[in-house]
Amino acid sequence: MTKPAWSHAELTPKELADRGGVAISALHFYERKGLIHSRRTSGNQRRYPREMLRRVAFIRISQRVGIPLARIHAALETLPSGRAPNREDWAKLSALWRADLDARIDQLVRLRDDLSDCIGCGCLSLDRCALSNPRDMLGQQGPGARRLAVDLD
What we know:
Number of strands: 3
Strand content: 5-15%
Distance between the termini: 64 Å
């Protein structure tokens, strides 16, 4: 890993990629999506401001918890330009997503709890299956695994 000197105000794509834990192609993708920015040298090489390292870390963490890129972009647009985001800036951004993340957690817990009732069943018409057959709607079509049934007639 290339470790850039702290005195460098700008990072090369390799330095940012190595330090940020992403591929250079990911940096190019983030840049095309407007999540990060660079400038071009006289030799047409990209140089990233050092604060892009924080943005890359934020993007990666946000993606890891399932935030869509469009929402990440909108959040990053609220950050001040001309300075590196500080702790308060990041706290504001994460607070915007707290309710959404809590709702997702609740949904995943319900999914996990409902799924445990029918794992291995295979019939897909169990009267209490809230996932693939709410209120036993498939049971009205006949016995057995209705979604897996093949009409050979």
